[in-house]
Design brief:
7 strands; 8 helices; two-stranded antiparallel ribbon; 48% helix; alpha/beta; binds adenosine-5'-diphosphate
């Protein structure tokens, strides 16, 4: 497996909801041989397992709010201290605020880890057509897409025969709100990291497969 040169790196993934950031991060994890750390996944797993942390964050998550900086920072610092992070990692969904970015920057400089931003730049129209074409099975969880991966029979799940639905998250007005919230949240972070002179790479999220985008990202990162 090719390793990244010049010491450990922290890949900070940016990309709006629907950009494919999560899928690209997972593929990148294999290509760079670095763990993929998603704060959203950590919180969801804890909610599912009913841990004290899960109980603490459930209400905030259900309301669509952000977990406090203090708590997220603590969870991330703990996760990054694990042995599998010694060679670097891919951070997905963190940092989300300037306070988190400042905390992370201090942590990275103490640990001698070099940050770089990877932004999956994706147009709003592309995201809407991707997400609004999504149909989900409320029974077995299978996901289809009218643009490219439709079910065999319109409106019916191939796997279990249930009637497919559009998830609330995938309705256009909700997509717009999430996109705008993302842009509002991310702009100050981009400014923060650019001012700090952190390397900034972009991949075009509009075209190609997740695999081709991850390959492009891996090439940029390996340099
Ligand atoms: P989304 O579903 O909005 O794409 P994620 O899957 O990354 O977000 O995270 C799910 C939820 O977990 C968020 O809505 C938020 O409540 C919480 N969360 C995740 N990462 C952070 C973070 N860095 N700061 C604050 N809250 C976070």
């Amino acid at each position: 497996m090719p390793q990244v040169q010049n010491g450990p790196i922290a890949v900070l993934m940016f990309g709006p909801p629907g950009s494919g950031k999560g899928t690209i991060s997972k593929l990148l994890m294999e290509k760079l041989n670095l763990p993929h750390i998603s704060t959203g996944d950590i919180f969801r797993e804890n909610v599912k397992a009913g841990t004290p942390l899960g109980r603490e964050v459930k209400a905030v998550m259900d309301a669509g709010g952000l977990v406090s900086d203090e708590l997220v920072n603590r969870i991330v610092a703990d996760r990054l201290s694990k042995p599998d992070c010694a060679g670097g990692y891919i951070l997905d969904g963190y940092p989300r605020t300037v306070e988190q970015a400042e905390f992370l920057s201090r942590l990275l400089s103490q640990a001698g880890v070099r940050p770089l931003v990877l932004s999956v730049e994706t147009d709003y129209n592309v995201i809407v057509s991707r997400l609004s074409g999504r149909r989900s099975c409320p029974n077995c969880g299978a996901v289809y897409n009218l643009n490219g991966m439709p079910p065999k029979v319109e409106g019916i799940c191939d796997a279990c025969g249930a009637r497919l639905v559009v998830r609330d998250d995938d309705r256009e007005e909700v997509i717009r709100q999430r996109f705008e919230a993302y842009e509002k949240q991310t702009a100050p972070l981009v400014a923060y990291f650019q001012k700090a002179g952190v390397a900034f790479y972009t991949v075009n999220g509009n075209e190609g497969t997740p695999e081709s985008k991850a390959e492009m990202a891996a090439r940029l990162i390996r340099g």
